[in-house]
Amino acid sequence: MQKINANKESRYEKSKRALFGAMIMCMAVVALGAFAGCENQPAPSAGHVHNWGEWEVTAPATCTAEGVKTRVCTLDASHIQTDKVDKLNHDYADVWTVDVPATCVTDGTETRHCKNCDAKTNARDITATDHDWGEWQTTPATCTEGGLKTRVCLHDVTHTQTEKLPATDHDWGEWQTTPATCT
Prior knowledge:
alpha+beta, three-stranded antiparallel sheet
C-alpha cells in the first residue's frame, strides 16, 4: 500500500511540475509579445511606449570629466538609455594649503586646493622666514689660542653662525723678586 501511495505521490508531483512549467512558458510568451513593442526594437509594435525606470548615475562626474547616467525600460531590460552628467565645477577650499614651505633662506608657496580633485588655484608666495638665532655657545679663548662662539638657527639646525675670538694674550702679574745670595 505504501508503494502505491508513493507512486501516486510521484505522479502527482510530476504533473504539478509539468503544469507549473507550462504556465511559466505561457507567461513568457505573453510577456515577450507585450515587450516586443518597445520603440527601440527593429520592428516596433504600434502603441507601445517605453516605461523608463529611474535615472542611475553609472559614472559620476568629476571636476575634469563628464559623468554618465543610465535608465532602463521596465518592459525590456535590453533597452537602455544614457545621458551625460555635466562635469562639476571645482570647489576650492577657503583655507590655504602650504605646497612648498618657506625656509630661512628661500620663499615657499601656498595655494587653495579643490575639495574634489588635485586642482589648485591662487598660488602665492610665502616669504622666507629669515634666521631665528639661538643663544651663543662659547669656547673661551686662552692666552695662546683663540676661542670660538657659535649659534644655531632655531628653524634649521644645519644653519650655523660662527665667530672666532682672538687669543687673550698673557696677563702677566706683578714681578716677583727673588733676592740674590752670595753664591
